[in-house]
Amino acid sequence: MTKKTLPKLNLSLEERKNLRKSKIKISEILELAPDELEIVLDASPARVKTIRALAEFQNVPSIGIKFAEDLIFMGYFSTAELKGKEGAKMFEEYERKKGYWTDPCVEDQFRLITDFARNTKINKKWWDYSEERKKYRLEKGYPADRPTKAWYEVNPIKWKTKL
Question: What is the pTM of this model?
Answer without folding.
Answer: 0.89
